[in-house]
Amino acid sequence: MAKVYITGVGFITSIGNDRAAVTASLRELRHGIVAYPPFQKPEVPVKVAAPVPDFQMDSTDAEDWTFPARYTIRRELLRGMAPHGVYAYCAMQQAVEDAKLSEADYSNPHTGLYAASGGSPFLLGHYLDRMRKLGVMRCQPLGVVASIAGTVNFNLVAHFKIKGASTGFSSACASSAHALGFACDEIALGRQQRMFVVGAEDGNVESIMPFAGMRALSVQTDPALASRPFDAARDGFVGTGGATVLVLESEAEVQRRGVQPYCEVAGWGQASDGHNVAISHPEGEGLRVAMENALRAADLAPEQVDYVNAHATSTPIGDLSEVKALKRIFAASPTRPAVSSTKALTGHGLSLAGAMEAGFCAVAIRDGFMPGSAHITRLDPACEGLNIIRATLPNQPQVVLSNSSGFGGANVALLFRRA
User: How far does CA 68 lie from the centroid of its chain?
Assistant: First the structure.
């Protein structure tokens, strides 16, 4: 089995729109949560969100969208994109540059792309409403391509001339973690030499607000109190959007190109709860098995894990489920890994979360730090026994575990190792 490495990253997030800004936010525990203007209405119970700065894409007409001047997207391309397609396009450009790839490197049958997003409820709702009111022939010809799940891989594969394996993944908040795991397998099995892994979400009213009906969103009005995983008073997650793109390459390609990777993808595991359509198993059974499978695949013992980037979204039930799973995994370990949830800073990116947090882990390994778990006022007593760090540690982790869980009890555990 070929070794797999992360050689490039691209970030468009609530805590920064490039690697340098994201790294600074992670080190300094600087969050991106704000009082979100569209939510400031009496009938809306949720008041905060974590929008992406420097992008304005709240119009249904792509020609009205604005984004940083460093990016150029032709008008004909924008017509087939959703807001999160723009995020992904910009993050893809960053990742290509960061990995020092030429078009010849990535536009060939040996390079593929796996992506994850929930589609664009914002645009889909608009186009369906237009069809009903004005008739089907008044619809934007590329409206389907721009709005349905899969729009990210449609656009990136076409616009970057990707010729290898490509598909989209749909397992809710585990989606882009699944994409990364299966992309790793493509390389390890020798089917591809290089894979792009993409997670992206709109992060606007239509993609966040429906979770209020589930009672899953925080109703805090103070942005510094809204997303606080592991805190005794946590009351729900904060929605966000953006995109992260990771470049995965085989060891042979890393050596051929002479690049210094961020880290090795040491292994991954997955398992399902088989419990509830929307709520995690109360004992964290599926996540525990996913972590065990990842450790077995990587030939690592629990005591070798230095840092855990937890899925913990700041919901009362979900965080507790993961705490129980982590305790089961590390109960017999003579050392306790540092644990934190970077969702305290970013909010929860839904299907973006797995890829975004994998990117955070890659940066933390290469740059030598472990980001703290912010906004904890009083640690939930149920967390007793876990080493949940509240401040960033200036220590370089050798092995990092990153967890993701989604609707239906889909669980993914990713393991990264210092290269």
Answer: 22
- Give the pLDDT mean for 4-15: 98
> Where in 273-377 does DSSP place strands (E)?
307-309, 338-340
The whole-number pLDDT of residue 334 equals 87
Residue 313 has pLDDT above 90, yes or no: yes
| Contact of 403 with 353, CB cutoff 8 Å | no
Side-chain-facing half-sphere of 42: CA atoms under 13 Å: 0
Catalytic annotation, pick one of 281, 311, 361, 383: 311
pLDDT for 19 beyond 90: yes
What pLDDT shows up at residue 332? 86
The DSSP letter of residue 235 is: -
| Ramachandran class of 375: left when φ > 0, alpha when ψ lies in -120 to 50, beta otherwise | left
pLDDT of residue 416: 99
Domains of the chain in start order, with CATH, are 4-413 (3.40.47.10)
Q: Are 156 and 92 contacting, i.e. CB atoms less than 8 angstroms apart?
A: yes
Percent of the chain with pLDDT over 90: 98
Kindly report the length of the chain: 419
State CA 346 to chain mean position distance.
10
Of 218, 82, 205, 94, nearest to 153 by C-alpha is: 82
Q: How would DSSP label each residue in 185-208?
A: HHHHTTS-SEEEEEEEE--SHHHH
- Residue 90 is among the residues annotated as catalytic for this protein: no
The rounded mean pLDDT for the chain is 97
173 is catalytic: yes
281 in catalytic set:
no
Q: Taking the chain, what is the end-to-end CA distance rounded to the nearest angstrom? A: 17
Choice among 31, 84, 126, 173 that is catalytic:
173
Instruction: State the residue for tokens 């490509």.
Output: 166
How many angstroms separate the CA atoms of 296 and 74, rounded? 46
Structural contact between residues 271 and 413, judged by C-beta atoms closer than 8 angstroms: no
Q: Is the predicted pLDDT of residue 139 greater than 90, yes or no?
A: no
Q: What angle do CA 158, 159, 163 make, to 5 degrees?
A: 45
